[in-house]
Design a protein that fits this description.
The protein has a six-stranded parallel beta sheet, with helices on both faces. It is an alpha/beta fold. It is globular. Helix 2 runs parallel beside helix 3, helix 3 runs parallel beside helix 4 and helix 7 crosses helix 8. The chain folds into two domains: 133 residues, Response regulator (Rossmann fold), CATH 3.40.50.2300; 69 residues, Orthogonal Bundle (Arc Repressor Mutant, subunit A). It starts with a strand and ends in an 8-residue tail after the last helix. The protein has ten helices and six strands. InterPro entries: CheY-like_superfamily, NreC/VraR/RcsB-like_REC, Sig_transdc_resp-reg_C-effctor, Sig_transdc_resp-reg_receiver, Tscrpt_reg_LuxR_C, WalR-like. This is DNA-binding response regulator. GO terms for molecular function: DNA binding. Keywords: DNA-binding, Phosphoprotein, Transcription, Transcription regulation.
C-alpha cells in the first residue's frame, strides 16, 4: 500500500486529488493539509511514501516544503502538482528534491501514475516540463558546472549519458553491452558521487555539465 499525503490551499482541489488517489486499491491517503508548514509537520509525523504538494500556498510555499521534506524525511518522495508551469518553478522544484512535476490539467490517471512511479523510486515529469528542461540547457555548461563529472569513471560517464537520454536500466545495459544489474550499481555510485537524489537530478547535472546537449 502506498501511503500518500496531499497539500493544497484550495479545499476543493485538495479533496479532488485525494479522492482520485484514494479510489485506487493500492493507495491510501493518510493526510491532507492547506499550507506548506502543515505539510512538513504531517510528513514528519506520518512518514508517507509520497507527498503531493501544490507550489503556491500561504506561509511556507510548496518549494520550501519540498526542500524541507526531502531533507528531513528522505524516505518521502515529493510530487509537485501545480497550475504554474513557469520555468523558475520547475527548476526550483527539481533542485529542491522533487521526484515528480505535473501540471493540474494532467489527466487523473497521470497523477495516479506519478504517485506509483515515484513511490517505486523513479521520477516522472510532465512532457512539457521535460521539453523546457532540455531547452534550458541548450546553450551548454556554465562556468560553475566545470569539473562536476571529474570523479566519474569513463564507464560511469557512459551510464550517466544513457540515463540522461531517458533510457531505463535494461535499455542502457543493451546499449552498453553490460548487465542491467551492473547499470543499477553504476547509477547508485553516480548519484552518490554527484550528490544528487535521483535520476531526474542526475539528468539535470548531465545537461548542466554539457555531457548531454539537446538533439545529440
Amino acid at each position: 500500500m502506498i501511503r500518500v499525503m496531499v497539500a493544497d490551499d484550495q479545499a476543493v482541489v485538495r479533496a479532488g486529488i485525494a479522492a482520485v488517489l484514494a479510489a485506487e486499491a493500492d493507495i491510501e491517503v493518510v493526510g491532507q493539509s492547506a499550507d506548506g508548514e502543515a505539510a512538513v509537520a504531517q510528513a514528519l509525523a506520518l512518514r508517507p511514501d509520497v507527498a503531493v504538494l501544490d507550489i503556491r500556498m500561504p506561509g511556507v510555499d510548496g518549494l520550501t516544503a519540498t526542500a524541507r521534506i526531502t531533507a528531513e524525511v528522505p524516505a518521502t518522495r515529493v510530487v509537485v502538482l501545480t497550475t504554474f508551469g513557469l520555468d523558475e518553478y520547475v527548476f526550483a522544484a527539481l533542485r529542491a528534491g522533487a521526484a515528480g512535476f505535473l501540471l493540474k490539467d494532467a489527466e487523473p490517471e497521470r497523477v495516479v501514475d506519478a504517485v506509483r512511479v515515484v513511490a517505486a523510486g523513479d521520477a516522472l515529469l510532465d512532457p512539457g516540463v521535460t521539453r523546457r528542461l532540455i531547452d534550458r540547457f541548450a546553450a551548454g555548461p556554465g562556468p560553475d558546472d566545470a569539473g562536476r563529472l571529474a570523479t566519474l569513471t569513463p564507464r560511469e560517464t557512459d551510464v550517466l549519458r544513457q540515463v540522461a537520454r531517458g533510457l531505463s536500466n535494461m535499455e542502457a545495459a543493451a546499449a552498453l553491452g553490460i548487465s542491467p544489474a551492473t547499470v543499477k550499481d553504476h547509477v547508485a555510485v553516480i548519484l552518490s558521487k554527484l550528490g544528487v537524489r535521483d535520476r531526474v537530478q542526475a539528468t539535470i547535472a548531465a545537461y548542466e555539465t554539457g555531457l548531454i546537449r539537446p538533439g545529440l
